[in-house]
Amino acid sequence: MKKHTYLRLFFLVAALFSMAVAQFSFFSGGKYILSAHIFGHVILLLIAAPFSVLAMRERPEARGGLAFGLSRWLSAMPWLNWILGIGILWIWQVPSILNALMTWDSPGFHRHLHLLSFLHSGSLLLAGILFCWPFAGPYQSHRLSAPESLLYLTTGWVAITLLASLIGFATSGLYGGPILTVSHREQLLAGLVLWVPACILCLGAAIYLLREWISGELWIHHEFYRRNKRRPARTAQDHEQIPAGKGELVPRGGAIIPHHSPQQI
Fold first, then answer.
1. Reduced to 3 states, what is the DSSP secondary structure of residue 128?
2. What does the pLDDT look like over 231-262, one tens digit per residue?
3. Which of 3, 93, 142, 220 has its CA 20 to 30 A from that of 251?
């Protein structure tokens, strides 16, 4: 098996494991049920979904097919992917919706498998895939450039930071409702659980994209100074009497001046 095959297999196993961890966190929160649900959201949206996208492989023979057309359509409107990805995450943090979900999930596994649970997990995974597709999709020709990806990730991080602040500093009793008791300390912990992993993952992705930008497009105009072969320099007592050859350098007045023949000009 090739190296890329092993890498995609690793991403696939990591995505499946992350999904299992997220599902386990939804019904094993106990005292910290709000933090457990937020942790599951982070796992599905920011870990399982990127691994699922990275596990896909680019198929040059499929250009023009259904997968290629779908990828091009998804990448053509990155703002729509951003709105859907971040918007679905925000919708599931609405107190009335999250309270209903926590009420269903709190008794145990036998009540966890219901329609709302499947809709909850599936929509978050889909939101993460949509959000990651413009800068991590399988077709590199459809990906955003490094500066665009940096702007894309930065705005996403700002939206998640705002959401974490709203959760952490919300009015005490807003989450949980009359059945479940969620303290203000628990809300602060839930906000940190959402914000800290998002910061780490976005920072790591930003460093990688910045490295790609610097090593690629940013210095393309300076290739002359890095790759141009050194041309021989001619010295003479009387520089005006000995003409320079084609592509040679002649010192004049203390400075080395490139000489170009009429053909070069």
1. helix
2. 554 554 544 544 555 545 455 555 544 545 54
3. 220
